[in-house]
Structure formats: C-alpha cells, structure tokens
C-alpha cells in the first residue's frame, strides 16, 4: 500500500537516523529509540524544506559542518520535542512545594538572615511552570520583602519567546484551580500573566548539559526539572543531575516529574518525604566540612 | 589525604561525609576490602550504594568477590545483602563461576539469594543451572530461578521459560509468563492457548499475546478490552496494536474485529487517546482508525499534530479513504484543540489519493473540501493556514492564484506558510500560467512575497522572470537574495548565470553557497557548463561551506579541468571541504583519485573516510579489498557498515574472507547486519 500522501517527503535511512540521533544526543542529551524513527523523519522534514535539502544526509552534513550548525541544531531539537505544558501541572507536587518546602525555606532564610529565595525551572518550555511557582510564592505571603527570583530556562528559543510574552490560550489553564484566576488578566489572544507575577520571573536560553553556562543561574534553593530528563539517555541524565547538584545550595531541593527518580542515577541527594510527594535534597552539610572530590 | 583522615571520614556521623569517603577509598588506601565491607553494611542507603559501585570496580575475582558472596547469603543484615547483590550484579559474568560453585553447596536458606545474584550477572552461562532449579519441586527456589532467568534473558532463557508455561503449578506459569513479557519474547500461540482461559494468567499474558503473531490471539485480547480495569484495557490495546504489526493474518483479524467493535468498546478506546501514556494513545489511535471511528478523529488529529501518527495508523487512514474525508472536514469546523490544520491537510490528501486511484470523491464533497481549504487559508492560526495550503496544493484552481499570492506576500518570508503558498502556485503554473503571472505582477518589489515566490517566478519563466529575479537580488535581506539565486539557477540560461556569478561575491556566505549550487547545474545553449572559472575562484574562499559548495558544483558541472584544484582540497583540514572534493572527483571520474585515497582513508572525520571508501575503484579488486578492509576496522560504526556494503559489491573470495573475519568480532548490530547481507550476497544467497 502506498504511503499516505500526508506523509510525503524524503525518507530517512536508518544510518542517517542514527547519525542524527547521536548528534542531537551529544548536543542536548535527548535520546530517541529506534521506534521513534518515523517521528524524527516527520518532524525534521520541514527543516530540510526550509534549507532546501532533498535528503537527510545533506541535513546531517549541515549539522556537522555549517558555521550555523549550532543554531540549526537548536531548531532541530525544537522541532523534535513536544513542548506542551500547562499551569499547575502535577498539582499534588506543587501543593507539597507550597505547603512544606516553601515554609521550610522561609524558616531557614529567617534563621540565617539571607531573605533570598531562588528557584530554577529547568526546561521551563512556554513558561507556565515558572509562573505557577511565582503564584505559589505570592500566595504564601511569606516572602513579601524578600529577594525572590524564579529563573526559567529552556533549550528552545521559540518557547522562551512565548514564555516572555506571557499570554496563554485556554489549554494552558485546564488544570488551574480557580483561586489563582486573579493573577491573570484578559487580553486579545488569551490571558496574560499579571505584572506582579512576571516581576518575579526571568527567562533564559540554556542547554542542561552545559555545566559552565549553568553558572548563570547562580546558587539556588529549589530546582524543578519535571518531565525533561525522561527524554535523556542515562549518561546525559547523570550529567544534568551533576549540574543540578552543583547549582543547589546545601539543603536545596530538587523536584522531578512523577515518573522520574534518581535511584540508579546519583547517590548524592537525600530523599525527603513530603506528605504528598517524594523530593530530593542536596545534603545540608556545608562544603567546608566535606573532603574534596566525591561530588558527582 | 592520610589514612587517619579517611578512617575518620568513614566513621563520621554525617552520612554525606561517609559517602564521599567511600568514593575516595580506592585512590587513598591500598587494601580497602575491610572498609568496603563495612560500608556495604552502612545504615545510610547512599553509602551502601556507593560501596557497591566501588566494590564492583575492584572485585572481578579473588577474596573480595568471595566476601561479597558471603554477604549475599548471610541471614541477618538485609541492607548489606542488597548492597552486596548490587555489587555482584555490577561485576556481571566474571562472578558467575564463583556463584555457581557457591550454589552447589548452598543450603535451603541461602539458595534463593544466590539465584538472585546469578540473575544479576545477566550471564547466559547461568541458564542451565537456573533452568534446572526452575523445574525443581521447591516452589520458592523455582520462583527465584524463574525471576533470575528473566533477568538473564537470551534465547536459552526464553526456551526455559516457555517450557515452564506447561507446568502444573499456576504460580510458575504466571512467573514464566511475566518473564516472557519482560523479555519481549515471541511465544507461539499453542504455548499460550490454554493460559487464556485462566483469569489471572490472561492479564499477565496480554503483551505476550501481542507478540505471538497469531490471529487466534485476537479474541482474548478483544475480550480484555472490555475488562473493567483501565490498566488491563490499555495493555490489551497496546497488545492488539502490536499484534496488528505481526503479519498479514493477525492484521486482517484485528482489523475485522475492530470494525465490529461495539460503541462501548470504541468509547473506552477513545478515552485512551486522551490519557497520559503515549504508547497507549497511539495504540488506541490505530485501533480506532481500523474501526473507522469518526468520533475519534478529533483526538486522532490532535495526536497527529503533536506527536506524529505511526506508519500503521497512516496506512489505516489511507485505507479508510473517502469515508474519512467528511468527518475530517467536520473536525476542522468544530474541533477546539490543536489539529484543525492537520485535519484539513489529511482530508485533502485522502481526496487526492482517491483521485489518483481513479475514484475521485463526489463533486459535493470536493466543493466542501475546497471551501474548507480556502477558509483555512485565512485562519489566524498559522498551523491551520499551513494545513490548508498544503491541502490546496492538490486542489487549487486558477482563481486561487491571487489570494494565495497575497497570503505569501504578507506571511513571514521564508516561513513554512510562505513556502507552502509557493508550492500551491508552483502546482498551478502549468495549468494556469496567465493567472499565476498576473498574481505575481502584483508583488511589491523588495517585499517579503518576492523572496517566497522566487522559485515560482522561475518556474513561470518568460522575459519578465529574469527582471523580477534581478530585482530580488538587490534585496537587503540575505534570505531573499538566496531565494532569488536559487530561482535564477532554475530559470537557466547565460544571462541568469551571469547574475548568479555576481552572487558568488555576495557578502553573505549562504548567498555565495546558493550561487555555487545554482551554477553547478547551469548550462549554455550548447550544453557547456557555465561559471566554471568563477567556481574555481570560489574554491579560494575563506568560508569552508562556500568552498564545499563550489567543489560540489564543479563536480556537477563536469569540467575535467577542475581536477587539480579539487585534488588539492581532498587533504583539507575542513572535513566538509574534503568530503565535497571527493564527491566532485568521483563525479568527474577522475583517474588520479586512487592515488590520493590512502590519505583520505586515514582522515580523522568519519564522513571523509566514507566518501573515500565510496571512491575506491571496485574494478581493481585486490587493492580495493585491501582498502575497504581498512574501513571494516574503523572506530565509527557507519564507516564499518559502509565498508561492508562496498565489499559486497566487489565479490570474490578475498572480499568474502574479509567479511567473515569481521563478523566474528563485530559488536554493532547495524554493522553485523550489513556484513551478513554481504556474506549472503557473495555466497550466492539473496537476503
């Protein structure tokens, strides 16, 4: 039976699929199994068309040798990943964050006098997670006169520009509790995040495997990285976790997606039982009391 | 760090300090066995886990392994046992012999722990012992042995598990089924038939039924779709989708049963498409397409828009054909989620498929389709406009030229919408040149539409085309100039070639690249290549991509005079340039290529080596085999695969010997496949 016309375009040979897969994996850690070959083929065809290529080996050469290869790699990753998210996704976990983690951080900040709350939404996509966290911080009322910064990063420039715009359609609000409606205002094209929430949020372009660039984030008290690492191969996952360890202050928290765990990835984190979730924490021992090395 | 310091850390109160100390142990202390064994029994799981890792790195044999095995079988400390099991598992096959020896002397209490450890080694040499115990009278031992067989895997383990399916003990049957499911084994239907009557076994058997390749597996799977448990229903759906891919007989039976599916069953499948599990969503989509369920199309096109439909699902949609067109148009009209553009595009493509098959849809339906496509073109959602334009490329009429051109002019230049609009016009040019020409005349010079439609202008041709494209070359947008250059290449002729040649001096390298690419195919009236001198000049560019493009273009131009300049570039440090030069020399049939191949075969970049392997002259078989054999031992798998394929083209004993020798040691499955295909070919058997 002939392929459906909708599926017209160059076919990807196994060799080209594997070479492209390995290139993308080395670039950003995302891994595609052999059964995802047709997805890669379908989603990259538009890039071939945009560049005027007729087959995937030409595209591979472009990603290897062209001076703008890195920018094209980012576009390829953008085309290959599903960036769909929404406000207050996995609400049970956010409840634990609001009711247990934030009060604990408040107490610690009060005791050490730092009055600074920094949160990193790693793989923030179109920004709904970062804004959700900001809303929760505001709702607690605990951090009114603190220095609060929520940094959202992603490898896709396209989603970042949507995050900065802060205007969302109905699908983004499908799981949002009504009590948070007041943080949004109606505008043409959808609903916009209000300024008091936006003021807490910053967005930036980042590849989770680039340890040196992660220094931009500074040291943070909480990292959210949900439903991102599941797309990584084990080695890349371990590298990303190393970056998170590095960026967290001692006692800082790491929150992953509900199907993700560090069990066979890293022993560097404590497991903390919240009432609704399990989260990870960098051990609170100050660096000065530990031997050098032995870090992930 | 001194011994005393490390000892202090190993006994520190803080578990993080102890964990770090374990990591440092091998670098700091000589004999760490005692320390590791204590760390394996640490109260903190993270310390134990690090100790397991370090122990595995150090204990491929000898006393430490003996102590680890003793820790596995000791009865008192569960944490220590788990850590020791993990360590032994990490050691893998080197631990097998010691474990088998210990197993022979094991008592009833310790046997099951050793079986667990053997499973962790994943060593096929453990299978005979495990298979024997799996059939023993002791149920606990048998259960442990079956679990271990699952973890070892491989054909022998699968055979042992299949044999257990006939056991009189229902729990052994279940354990074996579970193992076969985890191993994704293909189990023939006769071994499964009796199990489908057992309620508990039936549930566990779902994935195994899905791989059985038997049409008889369809009935129990369809029955499972109706079970109250959503988990079971989803598993059955996934298994049915897998079974559908298992051959024409099961596929036909799955399709037949889906067509007969009750409304309740269809509703259950529809609920899966909206669920969180991607494989289940796709399985449900396939089954509902086989069922030709119009109510599911909204969710299915959303899936297509966000995740891409699998090839079997697309085949099912194609088979549905004209019956799906009207429902898809309805999805476009009423659906609130993503996928409206996809629905339009699919509807148009299905209609085109019907027409190509000689049975176009009814006029009313085609009219409805066109109305939807034209409405979609004006939709504010770019995805919808894109889908509409792609669909319209099949169904455009002359009167569409003007609105499509207008859309191209106002869409972001070089975006997908502009490209799709250009494709529509390209499709119309032959049937309606006057209308397309009139529409293009309305394009403002220097505007975005000019860039997007450059290729259409070239296709249209005529005296006007050259002027329009010359004007586009003056754009201050490099992407517009690039599009114009490409279009001039398509237009052809000496005047166009002259303009393209100027573009080799453009300040933007991508425009230069486009110019080189265009010149490669341009010919004078007598057939002589145009712009060769300029292309030779472009070989001196500072930009490697321009040099590479110029090299390829010289190969395409076919001028043998370019040989020396190209040969000089084979040794370029820029792999893209070396690859292009080799390609060009092959295209020219350059006789001196074989002299420079040895250097290329030693290039650090795999793409250069592959290109050099492609250039090896197969006629001189002895030398060719020698050179290609170098490729068979290259570090990169794709080079080895390429070398194997090239060797299979030579034929003869030397090539066959080389392939056979490599087969024995080749670790990569894709390369092994290429080698096997080559061997089969050369041995006179078709794969």
Radius of gyration of chain B, in Å, reads: 34 Å
Q: What is the first-to-last residue Cα distance of chain B?
A: 62 Å
* Parts with pLDDT < 50 across at least 5 consecutive residues of chain A: none
Strand order of the largest sheet of chain A: 6-2-1-7-8-10-9
Number of strands of chain B: 0
Shape of chain A: globular
Q: How far is it from the N-terminal to the C-terminal residue of chain A, by CA?
A: 52 Å
Structural class of chain A: alpha/beta
What proportion of the residues of chain A form beta strands (DSSP E)?
15-25%
Let me know the number of strands of chain A. 10
Helix content of chain B: over 70%
Backbone shape of chain B: globular
Helical stretch tally of chain B: 45
Low-confidence stretches of chain B at least 5 residues in length (pLDDT < 50)?
A: none
Structural class of the helices, strands and pairings of chain B?
mainly alpha
Count of helical regions of chain A: 10
Radius of gyration of chain A: 21 Å
- Hey, roughly how much beta strand do the residues of chain B contain? under 5%
Q: How would you sum up the major sheet of chain A?
A: 7 strands, mixed
Structure at a glance:
With 296 residues, chain A is α/β, with parallel strands linked by helices.
Give the key terms.
heterodimer; A: 296 residues; alpha/beta; seven-stranded mixed beta sheet; three-stranded antiparallel beta sheet; 10 helices; 40% helix; B: 687 residues; mainly alpha
Please provide a written account of the structure:
The complex is a heterodimer of chains A (296) and B (687). The termini of chain A are far apart. Chain A contains 10 helices and 10 strands. With 296 residues, chain A is α/β, with parallel strands linked by helices. The mean pLDDT of chain A is 91. Helix content of chain B is 72%, strand content 0%. The longest helix of chain B has 17 residues. The model of chain B has no long low-confidence stretch (mean pLDDT 92). By secondary structure, chain B is mainly α. Chain B is globular and about 95 Å long. The chains are: A alpha/beta (296), B mainly alpha (687). At the A-B interface, helix 1, helix 2 and helix 3 of A face helix 2, helix 4, helix 22, helix 24 and helix 37 of B.
């Amino acid at each position: 039976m002939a392929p459906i016309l909708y599926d017209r375009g160059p076919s990807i040979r196994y060799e080209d699929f594997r070479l492209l897969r390995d290139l993308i994996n080395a670039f950003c850690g995302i891994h595609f199994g052999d059964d995802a070959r047709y997805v890669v083929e379908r989603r990259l065809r538009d890039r071939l068309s945009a560049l005027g290529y007729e087959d995937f080996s030409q595209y591979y050469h472009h990603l290897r040798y062209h001076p703008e290869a890195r920018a094209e790699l980012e576009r390829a990753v953008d085309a290959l990943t599903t960036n769909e998210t929404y406000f207050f996704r996995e609400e049970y976990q956010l409840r634990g964050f609001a009711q247990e983690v934030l009060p604990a951080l408040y107490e610690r900040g009060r005791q050490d006098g730092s009055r600074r709350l920094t949160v990193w939404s790693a793989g923030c996509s179109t920004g709904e997670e970062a804004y959700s966290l900001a809303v929760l911080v505001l709702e607690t009322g605990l951090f009114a006169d603190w220095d609060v910064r929520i940094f959202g990063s992603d490898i896709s420039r396209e989603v970042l520009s949507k995050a900065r715009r802060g205007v969302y359609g109905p699908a983004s609000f499908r799981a949002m509790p009504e009590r948070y409606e007041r943080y949004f205002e109606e505008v043409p094209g959808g609903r916009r995040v209000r300024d008091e929430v936006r003021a807490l949020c910053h967005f930036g372009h980042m590849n989770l495997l680039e340890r040196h660039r992660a220094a931009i984030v500074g040291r943070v008290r909480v990292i959210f990285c949900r439903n991102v690492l599941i797309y990584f191969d084990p080695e890349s996952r371990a590298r990303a976790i190393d970056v998170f360890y590095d960026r967290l202050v001692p006692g800082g928290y790491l929150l992953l997606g509900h199907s993700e765990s560090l069990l066979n990835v890293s022993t560097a984190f404590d497991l903390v039982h919240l009432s609704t979730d399990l989260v990870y924490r960098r051990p609170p021992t100050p660096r000065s009391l530990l031997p050098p090395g032995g870090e992930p | 760090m001194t011994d005393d310091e490390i000892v202090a850390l190993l006994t520190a109160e803080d578990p993080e300090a102890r964990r770090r100390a374990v990591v440092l142990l091998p670098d700091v202390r000589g004999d760490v066995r005692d320390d590791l064994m204590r760390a394996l029994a640490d109260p903190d799981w993270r310390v134990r886990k690090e100790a397991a890792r370090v122990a595995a790195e150090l204990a491929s044999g000898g006393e430490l392994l003996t102590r680890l095995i003793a820790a596995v079988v000791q009865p008192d400390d569960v944490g220590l046992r788990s850590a020791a099991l993990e360590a032994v598992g990490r050691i893998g096959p080197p631990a097998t012999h010691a474990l088998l020896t210990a197993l022979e002397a094991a008592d009833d209490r310790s046997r099951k722990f050793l079986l667990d450890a053997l499973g962790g080694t994943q060593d096929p040499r453990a299978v005979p012992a495990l298979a024997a115990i799996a059939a023993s009278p002791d149920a606990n031992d048998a259960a442990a042995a079956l679990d271990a067989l699952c973890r070892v895997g491989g054909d022998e383990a699968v055979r042992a598990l299949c044999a257990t399916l006939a056991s009189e003990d229902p729990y052994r049957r279940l354990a074996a089924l579970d193992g076969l499911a985890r191993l994704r084994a293909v189990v023939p239907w006769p071994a499964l038939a009796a199990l489908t009557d057992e309620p508990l076994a039936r549930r566990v058997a779902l994935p195994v039924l899905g791989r059985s390749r038997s049409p008889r597996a369809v009935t129990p799977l369809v029955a499972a779709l109706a079970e109250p448990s959503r988990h079971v229903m989803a598993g059955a759906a996934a298994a049915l989708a897998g079974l559908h891919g298992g051959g024409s007989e099961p596929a036909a039976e799955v399709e037949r049963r889906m067509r007969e599916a009750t409304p309740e069953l269809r509703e259950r499948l529809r609920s899966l498409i909206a669920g969180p599990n991607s494989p289940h969503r796709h399985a449900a989509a396939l089954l509902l397409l086989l069922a030709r369920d119009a109510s599911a199309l909204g969710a299915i096109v959303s899936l297509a828009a966000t995740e891409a439909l699998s090839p079997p699902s697309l085949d099912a949609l194609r088979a549905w054909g004209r019956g799906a067109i009207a429902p898809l148009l309805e999805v476009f009209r009423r659906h609130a989620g993503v996928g409206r553009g996809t629905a339009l595009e699919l509807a148009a493509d299905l209609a085109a498929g019907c027409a190509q098959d000689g049975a176009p849809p009814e006029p009313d339906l085609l009219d409805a389709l066109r109305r939807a496509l034209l409405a979609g073109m004006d939709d504010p959602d770019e995805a919808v406009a894109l889908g509409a334009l792609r669909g319209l490329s099949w169904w455009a009429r002359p009167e569409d030229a003007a609105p499509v051109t207008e859309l191209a002019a106002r869409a972001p230049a070089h975006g997908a919408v502009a490209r799709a609009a250009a494709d529509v016009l390209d499709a119309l040019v032959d049937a309606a040149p006057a209308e397309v020409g009139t529409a293009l005349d309305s394009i403002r010079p220097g505007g975005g539409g000019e860039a997007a439609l450059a290729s259409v202008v070239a296709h249209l041709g005529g005296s006007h085309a050259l002027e329009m494209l010359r004007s586009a070359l003056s754009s201050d947008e490099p992407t517009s100039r690039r599009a114009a250059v490409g279009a001039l290449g398509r237009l052809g002729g000496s005047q166009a070639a002259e303009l393209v040649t100027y573009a080799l001096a453009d300040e933007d390298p991508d425009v230069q690249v486009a110019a080189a690419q265009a010149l490669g195919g341009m010919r004078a009236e007598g057939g002589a290549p145009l712009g060769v001198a300029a292309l030779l000049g472009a070989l001196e560019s500072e930009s490697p991509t321009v040099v590479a493009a110029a090299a390829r273009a010289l190969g395409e131009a076919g001028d043998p005079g370019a040989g020396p300049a190209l040969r000089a570039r084979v040794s370029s440090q820029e792999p893209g340039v070396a690859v292009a030069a080799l390609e060009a020399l092959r295209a020219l049939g350059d006789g001196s290529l074989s002299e420079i191949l040895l250097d290329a075969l030693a290039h650090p970049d795999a793409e250069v080596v592959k290109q050099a392997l492609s250039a090896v002259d197969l006629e001189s078989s002895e030398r060719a085999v020698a050179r290609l054999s170098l490729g068979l031992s290259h570090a990169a798998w794709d080079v080895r695969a390429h070398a194997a394929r090239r060797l299979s083209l030579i034929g003869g004993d030397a090539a066959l010997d080389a392939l056979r020798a490599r087969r024995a040691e080749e670790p990569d499955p894709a390369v092994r496949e290429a080698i096997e295909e080559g061997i089969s070919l050369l041995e006179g058997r078709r794969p």
